[in-house]
Amino acid sequence: MYRPNSLWTWSFIAIVVVQALIALAFEGYVFAKFQTSLVSDGGKSTSQPESRAIPTYLTLFIFGFIYQILLVYDALRLKNTIQVIGLCFFNLALLIYAAVQMDQIKKAIDALSNQSDGSYIKPNSNIWDASQPFLVAVPCVLALGTVLLSIVAWKLYDEFAWTIYKHISADLRMKRRYLTFQIYIALLKFDFFFFLAFTVQFVVMVIRTNDPEFGLTIAAIPITILILILAAYWTRKENTLGMIVIIILYFAALAYFLFKLIRMYEPGTKEIYKPASKSLTTFAVITVILIIITIVNACVCTHNFGKGLKPHITRRKLESEDEKVTMTEMPNYKASGNPPNRMTID
Q: How far is CA 70 from CA 10, 66, 178, in A?
């Protein structure tokens, strides 16, 4: 089992964990304040789409921070500098989401306070005044965390370069192919979170359970997970036919998110998406950008099939400085001569 063994690896994990604890504590307070401010009306208030906004945001933050901690551990274990850099951008995305949720929560509170059949918020609860400082603090905490993570990531880049790059073939073209592979695998991990986050918001705050789209959207979650797993598997196995199928499915996913973005702002359907329009737009735009980048990397990875990269990304073990090199790390080849068929130790 991997254990951080340097100042900077410990620092990277510590920043993510402390940031998560502080942000979740603030979000938890807002959630508790919101729930205690709803009137007791036999569940009528909780059936409103706006009343599901804050619990959904809290759930996504919990999932986001837990997933981030897992990715941090995974990146440090594999000494994957690409994933470490990606985690800084992931933190920036959480920062954007935290800023967007502030406006969405205010609109949800205003909507619940001015319903046609009366207010669903207890009088004199002052929920917004009590919650606003904590909602402002969350993006501030994430902004500080992003800066600190970026500084530590720069230090880790130097640290991992010393440990890993001596295990990579001297062939510059092979290094580029391997870099493309690393970027692609990291993108798949981030694609999963943003697709799931969009889907959860869409299901909880927009679709009704009696809507046919509800079942289709729920079914899309395990299918997407399977597609991402197969995408990584077929890349490692250099299966061209499988990658062609995956790339076609990426284009289908891109069309789906673009369709949803358009529907969010069409006059006939705009009101349906209103309770979560900004947060859904944020995740849809980020997901579209990620899918486009993923498609480009998938095409480049497929183009690199049969050019000698496969032995480098096959799962193997290498004992070097008491650490293991796994499927996303390259084996140690001697600087001269042809690469051997088996792994060697310095």
A: 14, 6, 23
| Separation of alpha carbons 41 and 230, rounded Å | 48
Q: What one-character DSSP code corresponds to residue 341?
A: S
Average pLDDT over every residue of 169-197: 85
Nearest to 104 by CA among 59, 57, 164: 57
Question: Residue 198 in contact with residue 284, Cβ under 8 Å?
Answer: yes
Q: How far apart are CA 240 and CA 101, in angstroms?
A: 42
In 3-state terms, what secondary structure has residue 23? helix
- 95-121 burial, b if ≥16 CB within 10 A, otherwise e? bbbbbbbbebbebbbebbbeeeeeebb
**Letter for the amino acid at 59?**
T
Q: pLDDT per residue over 190-228, tens digit each? A: 999 998 888 887 777 665 666 777 777 788 888 888 999
Q: Which residues of 287-317 are buried (b: 16+ CB within 10 A; e: fewer)?
A: bbebbeebbebbeebbebbeeebebbbeebe
CA dist 247 and 312 (Å) reads 23
**What six digits make up the tokens of 281?**
């737009």
pLDDT for 336 equals 42
DSSP assignment letter at 114:
T
> Which of 270-279 are b and which e, b meaning 16 or more Cβ less than 10 Å from the residue's Cβ?
eebbbbbbbb
Q: What would the two tokens of residue 33 be?
A: 């304040």
104: tokens are: 């969405």
For residue 298, what are the CA distances in angstroms to 219, 226, 246, 264? 25, 16, 9, 29
